[in-house]
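F.,

This is the one I mentioned.
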């Protein structure tokens, strides 16, 4: 493992779950870590916590300025902040869909844009964007959430090509089910329709069981650390056995077989 003493990491959404465990892993690896949360949070075990709303451009700029004031540089950005939405695509208003994209997609673009001038002046930097296996495959009753992760994938791959000449690399980490409180804090549709009630309830139970049996957040944290420290980083890092299997199936199996497997996996009729 690379010794990252004196390197500075900024991770969004670091007050709990994957973000908190990852922040701790980075700190233990030698990074000076700044974490963010939407609400004020006390600093934890050597991690400096800052209040930042990734949907507010001024808040993002102020957070990055504070990190630079205290540390003078930013070597690693981990874009982890995100929210979920469980429900049929038809059940969400356009405003709700826009709010989801504002956090999961535009939140990443805001924070990334804010740190890039510093990374370019340093002539080096690493950006790790937390995606999902749902950035690779469709997910019924998670259509809008999956759409945000597909957007993150396209943005990250394209941005990586733009920034390599400046010594900056952009990589993706794609977790599967992970044992966090993510499922408990899922947003529910703001225009629910009775026709979807039973299947939506079944999908909620399916997700709950998946999370309970999922990978420990440390699996994702270890993957982020690998992506952050690799001398020649890959474009994508799947986190955990299930995520690796999903990536393999999507890449190598015929589309019809993937479609059939996905419906079976989600307990949907053929």
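My design for it:
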């Amino acid at each position: 493992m690379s010794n990252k003493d004196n390197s500075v990491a900024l991770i969004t959404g670091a007050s709990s779950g994957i973000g908190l465990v990852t922040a701790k892993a980075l700190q233990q690896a030698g990074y000076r870590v700044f974490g963010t949360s939407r609400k004020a949070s006390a600093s934890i075990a050597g991690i400096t916590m800052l209040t930042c709303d990734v949907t507010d451009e001024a808040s993002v700029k102020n957070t990055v300025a504070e990190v630079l004031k205290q540390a003078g540089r930013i070597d690693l950005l981990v874009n982890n902040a995100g929210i979920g939405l469980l429900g049929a695509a038809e059940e969400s208003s356009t405003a709700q869909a826009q709010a989801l994209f504002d956090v999961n997609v535009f939140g990443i673009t805001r924070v990334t844009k804010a740190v890039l001038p510093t990374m370019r002046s340093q002539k080096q930097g690493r950006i790790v964007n937390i995606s999902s296996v749902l950035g690779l495959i469709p997910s019924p009753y998670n259509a809008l959430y999956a759409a945000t992760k597909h957007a993150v994938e396209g943005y990250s791959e394209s941005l990586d090509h733009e920034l390599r000449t400046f010594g900056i690399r952009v990589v993706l980490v794609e977790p599967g089910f992970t044992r966090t409180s993510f499922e408990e804090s899922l947003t529910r549709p703001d225009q629910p329709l009775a026709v979807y009630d039973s299947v939506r309830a079944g999908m909620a139970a399916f997700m709950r069981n998946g999370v309970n049996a999922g990978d420990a957040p440390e699996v994702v944290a270890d993957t982020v650390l690998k992506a952050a420290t690799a001398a020649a980083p890959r474009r994508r890092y799947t986190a955990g056995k299930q995520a690796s299997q999903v990536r393999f199936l999507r890449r190598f199996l015929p589309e019809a077989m993937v479609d059939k497997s996905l419906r079976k996996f989600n307990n949907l009729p053929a």
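Residues 143-163 form the longest helix (21 residues).

Talk soon.
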